[in-house]
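Whiteboard transcription, Tuesday session. T.W. wrote the C-alpha cells on the left side:
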C-alpha cells in the first residue's frame, strides 16, 4: 500500500482494522492531511474496501474507497471506486474534483507497481 497509495499507520488486512494515511493538508476543502480509515470488506486477493474520512472532521464523510481485481483475458482488470460524495454539497464536489486528479496518479502508480512485481 505504501508503494502506490500512502504509507499506512496501523493497517492490517482484516475487516474492522482501523488505520490512517498521511497526506498533504488541502486548505481549499479544509482537509487536515490525515485520512482515518477502517477496512470494511476484504476478499483476498480480489477486493478491499475501506472508509475514507478526514481524521479531524467532526462527522464521518461516508466515503468508501474500493479496489477490486477481476480476471480478464490473460491479465487482470482493476476496478476502482470512491463513492459517497453528496451531490448537493459544493464542498463534497470540490473534494471529489481535487481527489479525482490524485486518484488518477495513484492508480497509475499501482499499475507500475504491479508490472514490476
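and on the right, the sequence the group agreed on:
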Amino acid at each position: 500500500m505504501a508503494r502506490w497509495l500512502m504509507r499506512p499507520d496501523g493497517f492490517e488486512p482484516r475487516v474492522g482494522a482501523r488505520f490512517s494515511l498521511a497526506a498533504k493538508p488541502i486548505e481549499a476543502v479544509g482537509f487536515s492531511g490525515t485520512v482515518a480509515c477502517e477496512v470494511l470488506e476484504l476478499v483476498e486477493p480480489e477486493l478491499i474496501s475501506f472508509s475514507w474520512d478526514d481524521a479531524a472532521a467532526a462527522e464521518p464523510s461516508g466515503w468508501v474507497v474500493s479496489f477490486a481485481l477481476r480476471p480478464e483475458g490473460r491479465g487482470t482488470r482493476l476496478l476502482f471506486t470512491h463513492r459517497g460524495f453528496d451531490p448537493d454539497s459544493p464542498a463534497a464536489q470540490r473534494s471529489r474534483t481535487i481527489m479525482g486528479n490524485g486518484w488518477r496518479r495513484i492508480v497509475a502508480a499501482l499499475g507500475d507497481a504491479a508490472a514490476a512485481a
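Someone added at the bottom: The two ends are 13 Å apart (CA to CA).
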